[in-house]
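Model: You mentioned two targets. I'll fold them one after the other.
Researcher: Yes, keep them separate.
Model: Target one:
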Amino acid sequence: MLHEDEFVIADLVFAADIIACVPDKLYYYVRRVNGNITAGSFDKRFSPILLAYSHRYQTLQKIGLSDLLRNTREAAFRMLQRYYFEHDPASRNWKQQFQEGKKIYSNMYGRTINEQLRWTIFQLNPYLYRFIMRFR
């Protein structure tokens, strides 16, 4: 599964009694065969990462960490924008996946006025949103 670590990291951090940072590189990928996820030839659907963000968001709501909630919403919104602008709308399942992504992001409550405005403009016209954000 793509982004499998995103589905568990918030739960693990919340459940941990002690968290330590070490200088060792303990997380790496091994490329064994062509066609695996790390080789880059995989289905680039964004649904798994947005579902992971949604799961993280729900976990953070239970904890009550508002800064991390905002960061998670921002990451989900950036992913939604990337998907919209970097994928071909004529490709199979594009519209369904985009609608699913919008629904996931819409269920992330507590947006600031700035976030609400940006989201509204993006829903009305993503190209207008991108044009406006250039001047930010």
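Model: Target two:
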Amino acid sequence: MKKIIVTFTILCFFLCPIYAKNTFEQNGELWKDLSADPDQERGKLAKLMYVRGIYDGIAFSGEKDLKKMFYIEGEGKKFYGNLIEALDEFYSDYRNINISVIQALVIISAELRGAKKEKIEELKEETRKMNLEKATIK
């Protein structure tokens, strides 16, 4: 019981800065921050919890249109592991760093559903431009 309480406390302390940011600041910088922990397992767990939280929110929202935007074909560790790998790859391109995690998941979902490469690149470019404009307005 004590181990569970300590683990929960550590996770809450580690994840609190995530909740303090608004949605559009939860972008590639945040994703990379989750990986910055020297303890690689804790970084993987943080990413898993983050993506799982997004997908749990989608599942509980009951919004059919929202569910259509995200790839939901799968369950469990392998499904989330694949999404995390896809996000890591997505943010390895410096041009995607200002794209929010949710927008990145929409793009990745389109790719996983089999959208044409040209369509994916067009979606990325539109999203980059939109986020660049938001970044310059601040």
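Researcher: Noted. Anything on target two?
Model: The two ends are 46 Å apart (CA to CA).
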